[in-house]
Design goal:
Keywords: Membrane, Transmembrane, Transmembrane helix. The chain is mainly α. It contains 13 helices and no strands. It has one domain. α3 runs antiparallel to α11 and α9 packs antiparallel against α11.
Length: 321
């Protein structure tokens, strides 16, 4: 298969495209099922997100008369396309090596912001007052959780760079390769605060309770996506599923990419188990044990705690190497 053929396969089938969509929807179903059990409910079946998606694609698309049509259409496509590309940048140790180019970690940082930007574009283009409120809240949330994410990525890049005789390594493939040779960063005490900071970043970027402020149903009735329906709303749902795969996969690649031998299927199962552990710790438990907070509280929280934790790891990395 040619390089172009490999790229198309990666984008459309594995690890992006079909594989990532199925994995993301399955993780969403597992999350909903576990939440229901925590709340002493039976809960929906694991395949409920798949059913919801099919139902949305069969519904009529309704566009507000006063909406900016081009921006309204572009928004869901922008977020979805960004996550499809982001998935193929993340290596799966023992299964998939990634695209292996210098600076892919920085590209991933920009791609991760596209779903939030898509929500802001969609909310502002819808002409709905609820969309406008959701737009402003989404912008504040993105500014708050992007700082600790940037510090975590910088810390990991510096750690690997200093250990390999350089300054900073912004190649995710090299970061994973370093850990395969020298052990996972999860077991380096200087990286533990950065790991905790990243775990706190996950519910914020995924927009789950208590950080679902831009789409708070009881306040602004879904906010930016209130006016979306049919296939366009389905694209937003798919984007969330893909983003979950990207964020959890990035956490594994940064801190614990170690495979189990050379068996591809075994490594895929091992990777899926790590996804489940991260899902329960960073999303499921958080949203079942907390209530919604205000946007100003969320902003101050991210500027204080995960940012401070990431800075601690950054300083320890600079001092200890």
């Amino acid at each position: 298969m040619t390089d172009i053929g490999h790229l198309i396969f990666n984008l459309l089938i594995f690890p992006g495209g079909l594989f990532a969509i199925v994995l993301g929807l399955l993780l969403m179903g597992i999350d909903r099922k576990i939440v229901a059990r925590f709340q002493r409910r039976v809960g929906p079946p694991l395949y409920q997100p798949f059913i919801d998606l099919v139902k949305l694609t069969r519904k009529e698309i309704i566009v507000p008369e006063t909406a900016h049509l081009q921006a309204f259409r572009l928004a869901p496509l922008l977020g979805f396309a960004g996550m499809i590309v982001a998935v193929i940048l993340i290596p799966i140790a023992g299964v998939y090596q990634g695209l292996e180019f210098s600076g892919d970690l920085l590209v991933l940082l920009y791609l991760l912001s596209l779903p939030a930007i898509a929500l802001m574009i969609g909310g502002s283009a819808s002409s709905s007052p609820f969309g406008a409120v959701g737009f402003s809240r989404e912008m504040v949330m993105m500014m708050s959780y992007e700082l600790p994410l940037l510090l975590v990525l910088l810390t990991v890049a510096l750690k690997v760079g200093l250990k390999t005789g350089g300054i900073a390594t912004f190649s995710l493939s090299k970061i994973v390769g370093f850990q395969l040779e020298n052990g996972a960063l999860l077991f380096d005490y200087t990286m533990l605060p950065a790991l905790v900071a990243f775990l706190i970043f996950i519910p914020g970027t995924m927009g789950v309770v208590p950080f679902d402020i831009p789409e708070a149903e009881t306040e602004i009735v879904e906010g930016p996506i209130l006016e979306y329906s049919g296939s366009w709303l389905a694209l937003f749902k798919l984007t969330n599923a893909l983003k979950m795969v990207v964020v959890l996969g990035l956490a594994v690649a940064l801190f614990f990419p170690t495979p189990l031998g050379e068996n591809t299927m075994l490594n895929l199962l091992w990777y899926f188990l790590k996804y489940l552990i991260l899902l329960v710790i960073s999303i499921t438990i958080v949203r079942t044990s907390t209530g919604r907070i205000r946007i100003d509280q969320a902003f101050k929280f991210y500027l204080k705690y995960p940012t401070a934790l990431a800075l601690i790891s950054l300083v320890l990395t600079l001092v200890k190497g």
